[in-house]
Amino acid sequence: MPISLYFYSALNAVKKILAADFACHESDFENEGIYIHQAKALPGRRRFPFREKPFAVATMGKGVVVSCGVERLGWCDAHLSQLSRNDIFAPPAVTLMDEYVKKDGQYIAGPDLKHVCTRDIFRPYKPEKDIELTLIEDTKGLEQYNDDDRFINTRGYPNNPRRVAAFATVKGSIAGIASACADTDLMWQIGVDTLEEYRHRGIGKAMVSALTEYILKQRNIPYYSSFESNTTSRALAASLGYKTAWIELYARGKNV
Fold this sequence. Notes:
Order of helices and strands: HEEEHHHEEEEEEHEHE
Structural class: alpha+beta
Number of strands: 11
Helix content: 25-40%
Largest sheet: 11 strands, mixed
Low-confidence stretches: none
Mean pLDDT: 92
């Protein structure tokens, strides 16, 4: 099936943002090969904290880009530059990278699948009648949940707070929260948490659907992350029309 014009346009926008994230050329994602670049905090990148010892890898299906601190360039060139795209995301290479960053108190997170939706492929979903869904643009009322470990995926970041949230209740009791942060002015990431006792009822899907519809109406790009192994999360994204746009792994601190 040919790629839709809207999704093609979204992929081009994502590619531009990833090029800023990884301090690389957009063409690095278009051509086969491994491209290693020194990490830099460039304008246009996603609003994530710039880590003291950066290390990240991403592909949109062709070229693989490695972005790292200057002190890690030599190691990456020696150990990763000759690998294939498939090899670099396979367990042996991920383990090798994990062992390398461990000396700096980090570990390799991911691979994460990053899914994008556009208005022509979006399939909205409404919840069951006993589920009440509220869309909240003023998310200050949700600050009471910031330290609640049941909702770790919907907190946002100090420099990138949630812009909008969907709040689900069942018979007056909270069942879940989903929120969206503007990782860039154009690209908004959705996170979702459904309490265990309310799962498998479509609540998470309904909340993500409501946020997706809201973001698309703002003429922005909604995106959604899932671990490669989380088949439930991946199925949720696919059921709403999301398509995988890129795959990413990165080093993070043990307590971050």
